[in-house]
Design a protein that fits this description.
171 residues; 6 helices; 48% helix; mainly alpha; 0% strand
């Protein structure tokens, strides 16, 4: 049927590591739209993700899974995208079954999107959409996948992904 073909991964240059397996569905950071460019620090107004407790190093493997996620997300809020990506990857690896693992995959993609590493961002957005289509980040992943494919000049695939947003998520 038209429009039902699977979305293909873009063929980026260079070697990319696929994201770690993750599960999750909670969306404690709903309402956060795009991250600021790397040169701009922001508090990402609207986020409900708590700040890490005082004394817990950013993206530290110590602390509870919620604290680990909050530490990595705090780095995003501060515009420290390399460290945030490391923290999200570590969180996913250490907590693959945690309810926030799906969010971590999405935000991991965002860390690459804001740095204009669209090939890597597309890999994470596709992974998040395919693994968690019913999660609250499902529509976000599909939308950002389309936007990222457009940046990569994969126009047909971008249009396909963007057209599927309203079909798969009519609300």
């Amino acid at each position: 049927a038209p429009g039902s073909a699977p979305i293909r991964k873009p063929q980026p240059q260079g070697s990319l590591q696929p994201p770690a397996s993750s599960l999750g569905g909670a969306d404690i950071d709903a309402g956060v739209s795009e991250l600021p460019p790397p040169a701009i620090s922001s508090t990402l107004e609207g986020s409900r993700t708590p700040l890490p407790p005082p004394g817990l190093a950013a993206a530290s493997p110590k602390g509870s899974p919620d604290e680990q996620y909050a530490a990595a997300f705090g780095l995003l809020r501060a515009g420290e995208y390399d460290a945030a990506a490391d923290g999200m990857e570590r969180f996913i690896k250490n907590n693959p079954d945690h309810e926030l693992a799906g969010n971590a995959v999405y935000w991991l993609g965002e860390t690459y999107y804001v740095r204009k590493d669209y090939a890597r961002a597309a890999t994470y957005f596709l992974d998040g959409f395919q693994k968690y289509p019913q999660s609250r980040k499902g529509p976000d992943n599909l939308l950002k996948l389309g936007m990222t494919l457009a940046e990569l000049n994969h126009k047909a695939e971008a249009c396909q992904a963007l057209n599927q947003v309203s079909k798969k998520y009519p609300k």
